[in-house]
Design brief:
The chain is an all-alpha fold. It has one domain. Helices cover about 70% and strands about 0% of the residues. Helix 5 (about 115-135) packs antiparallel against helix 6 and helix 6 runs antiparallel to helix 7 (about 165-190).
């Protein structure tokens, strides 16, 4: 049954991990630097609040642009022709973050103690722990998804968008939710267990973005 399901994908489990192996061996300094920059941005957000929103939006734009070009177009395309489309969509999401959050300053991230604030914080923490979780759950370096690739990028994004007003994030939520379906389904078929959280993150983001109008006075401070 498992082998039959894998035939629905244009690549095998070993080919998928080989792509990560090649990516990590070639670009591991970028993965480490991306993790450090992201951790600094998150720490700044939790210390300074909305004043760090432009920095966080810039980090998200970098994540989506990097995953689209460096991962999808350079590496993943060698085993999956759809990676060209994926890469273009990821670059589009990067452009949206630049437009709304960096150039337009139309995104305001605010960590809170509300339900969605706590859920978002948990997803952010999970994304930062993601490389270690992959290794803990049975994968081995360098053939494992590291930081800065599509799935942890989408989980990080879902968590951060839950810290912003709904009216600001509905447009920005569409692509992360769609990727949660695509990437999360493939993760289940390939038994990449750290990525199962992607399905959860996408579902929660969909509920958050589709919920009623945002009322500032209902969010805990």
């Amino acid at each position: 049954m498992f082998e039959h399901e894998l035939m629905q994908l244009p690549f095998t489990y070993d080919q998928f991990l080989d792509v990560f192996g090649a990516y990590n061996q070639a670009l591991w300094p970028a993965a480490v630097l991306t993790w450090l920059l992201t951790a600094v941005a998150i720490a700044t957000l939790y210390r300074r609040g909305p004043s760090a929103s432009r920095l966080v939006a810039a980090i998200l734009a970098f994540h989506w642009g990097w995953a689209g070009m460096a991962y999808h177009l350079v590496f993943f395309r060698s085993i999956n022709p759809a990676a060209t489309l994926f890469g273009a969509v990821f670059v589009l999401q990067a452009a949206l973050f630049l437009w709304r959050g960096v150039l337009g300053s139309q995104l305001s991230f605010q960590p809170t103690s509300s339900f969605w604030g706590r859920v978002g914080g948990a997803l952010i923490a999970y994304s930062l722990l993601y490389p270690a979780l992959g290794l803990t759950l049975g994968l081995a370096y360098p053939r494992f998804p590291s930081f800065g690739v599509p799935c942890p990028t989408a989980i990080l994004t879902a968590g951060l968008l839950m810290l912003a007003p709904r009216r600001e994030v509905r447009l920005l939520s569409a692509i992360p939710v769609l990727w949660a379906v695509v990437g999360g389904s493939a993760a289940v078929l390939l038994s990449i267990w750290a990525d199962v959280a992607l399905l959860i993150a996408g579902s929660l983001l969909l509920v958050f973005a589709a919920a009623g109008p945002h009322r500032p006075d209902t969010r805990a401070t």
